[in-house]
């Protein structure tokens, strides 16, 4: 008898009610309808439908607003709801009993109610099921045997596919992603920049490849691991202006651990990130720039990617973001550049570091403003004139030339700096975003290097205005224009470092064309007037063609 019970599909009361249901079949069949609300499946109380628009189980037929006691099927619906409890209406509380349905949908409804019938039997309430019910169940089973077999076959196939995916997935906690940036670069103009013939640079082709592991243990945390190889090099134009963000340092294809961090929520409003390697400002706060795509997307240049004061944040450390509301957040972070080096003047606290505090204000989806302060030791801006990066500049000026007997030791003068930034981005429309920033850095040397240089301070300024055109030409594409002044020494009380007398302007334009969901191609050009803030230098034009593959 138990086998008979388990082979049955639905009761006669269910038959009368399901004939009125317009439900989306479990087998994937749909009905064309002019109404926007998706139909509600007939489900048992223990089943759930993956649809945010669905309502809870109906417990009384009076909950269905379009069902009246005078309707011919009222008693059948009442029996189905109150006796068997395996029917629900549409999200708006209607039943729509006059709508048509397919045989597959009818079979799906029968199958959905089977669990409820079995539940009644299992809980020793079999008196609710009569002999007439059993006879009707048998007739329905025979009439819809083909449709039910099809449904079961599809379910079996889905279960087999699910089992195969579970058996062959990379990890139950980790998602593997990757990215390849290929770039063709060349210097198109510039005969003399600080004694360097910029046009002597040859056309180059290089690539940056990244493999990323995104791991989550709780569903709300992230362990991020990135392995990278990068043989792209910046062209030598005699200044750090115009450098490409996606370029590497040594030009090799050696793979190494590039980034490693763990992010989790301490409370509903507090997020913490612990960074073990290669942390940057965009890991700990919002850089408030539409073009900050970490070299793979958006701006081509280092300067155009984000306010240069952010480049003083580099290494390992800790970041905390406190969200006071949806419109206001405070980010605090500390990153050290040589945390694993136990030698003198190194380590997490005694070596180069950057400490950041930023208040990010977003009163609407269209406007974002960031107020930033960074205190740094032995960190440079990584963009702008040679003098705006005083540690490197003094090292090049004070270190003995290679032809001096012996092995000259590099001369490193320690610097401390305080930087202040204002960043803003305003979305004027869905296809036009106006943005920009201004940055100020006050840097002072902490040593005279045995009386070689005087103690003093530098005032360094930079600014930019950005114009973004999202979805220009096609969905996902982005056009951008950047106009600004890379970091410039406007005042100096250090005798060995003169202020930059002239002003160099940075003009950059690019068009990121989204070929497909995984491929984008970005041609762009960078034009530097009076490079290195020196009008004696020829203008430099750098061209680049970047292709990004994501998987």
UniProtKB/TrEMBL annotation:
GO cellular component, one term: membrane
UniProt keywords, alphabetically: Coiled coil, Signal
Source organism superkingdom: Bacteria
Keyword Cytoplasm: no
KW Transferase (keyword) present: no
Coiled-coil annotated spans: 141-168
Domain SLH: 60-124
NCBIfam families: por_somb
Record family assignment: Belongs to the OprB family.
Name of this protein: SLH domain-containing protein
Organism name: Fischerella muscicola CCMEE 5323
């Amino acid at each position: 008898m138990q086998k008979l019970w388990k082979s049955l599909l639905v009761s006669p009361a269910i038959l009368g009610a399901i004939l009125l249901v317009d439900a989306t079949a479990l087998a994937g069949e749909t009905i064309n309808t002019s109404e926007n609300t998706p139909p509600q499946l007939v489900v048992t109380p223990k089943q759930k439908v993956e649809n945010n628009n669905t309502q809870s189980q109906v417990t009384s037929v009076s909950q269905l607003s379009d069902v009246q006691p005078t309707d011919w099927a009222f008693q059948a619906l009442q029996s189905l709801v109150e006796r068997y409890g395996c029917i629900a209406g549409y999200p708006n509380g209607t039943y729509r009993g006059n709508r048509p349905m397919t045989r597959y949908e009818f079979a799906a409804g029968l199958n959905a109610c089977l669990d409820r019938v079995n539940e009644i039997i299992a809980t020793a309430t079999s008196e609710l099921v009569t002999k007439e019910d059993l006879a009707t169940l048998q007739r329905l089973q025979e009439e819809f045997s083909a449709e039910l077999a099809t449904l079961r076959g599809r379910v079996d196939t889905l279960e087999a596919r699910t089992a195969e995916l579970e058996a062959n997935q990379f990890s139950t906690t980790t998602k593997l992603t990757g990215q390849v940036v290929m770039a063709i670069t060349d210097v198109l103009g510039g005969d003399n920049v600080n004694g360097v013939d910029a046009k002597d640079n040859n056309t180059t082709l290089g690539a940056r490849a990244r493999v990323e592991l995104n791991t989550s243990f709780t569903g709300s945390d992230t362990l991020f691991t990135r392995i990278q190889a990068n043989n792209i090099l910046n062209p030598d134009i005699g200044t750090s202006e115009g450098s490409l963000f996606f370029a590497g340092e040594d030009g090799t294809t050696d793979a190494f651990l590039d980034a490693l961090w763990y992010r989790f929520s301490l409370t509903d409003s507090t997020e913490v990130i612990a960074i073990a390697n290669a942390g940057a400002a965009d890991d700990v706060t919002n850089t408030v720039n539409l073009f900050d795509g970490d070299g793979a997307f958006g701006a081509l240049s280092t300067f155009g990617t984000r306010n240069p004061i952010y480049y003083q944040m580099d290494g390992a450390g800790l970041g905390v973001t406190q969200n006071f509301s949806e419109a206001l957040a405070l980010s605090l972070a500390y990153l050290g550049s040589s945390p694993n080096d136990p030698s003198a003047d190194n380590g997490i606290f005694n070596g180069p570091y950057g400490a950041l505090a930023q208040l990010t204000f977003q009163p609407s989806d269209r406007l974002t403003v960031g107020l930033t302060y960074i205190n740094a030791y032995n960190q440079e801006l990584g963009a702008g004139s040679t003098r705006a990066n005083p540690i490197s500049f003094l090292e090049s000026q004070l270190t003995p030339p290679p032809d001096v007997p012996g092995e000259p030791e590099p001369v490193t003068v320690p610097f401390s700096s305080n930087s202040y930034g204002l960043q803003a981005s305003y979305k004027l429309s869905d296809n036009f975003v106006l943005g920009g920033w201004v940055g100020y850095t006050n840097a002072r040397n902490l040593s005279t290097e045995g009386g070689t240089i005087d103690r003093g301070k530098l005032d360094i300024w930079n600014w930019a205005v950005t114009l973004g055109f999202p979805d220009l030409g096609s969905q996902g594409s982005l056009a951008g224009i950047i106009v600004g002044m890379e970091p410039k020494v406007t005042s100096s009380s250090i005798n060995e470092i003169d202020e930059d007398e002239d002003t160099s302007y940075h003009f950059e334009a690019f068009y990121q064309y989204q070929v497909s969901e995984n491929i984008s191609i970005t041609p762009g050009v960078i034009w530097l007037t009076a490079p290195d803030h020196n009008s004696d230098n020829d203008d430099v034009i750098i061209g680049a063609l970047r292709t990004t593959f994501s998987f």
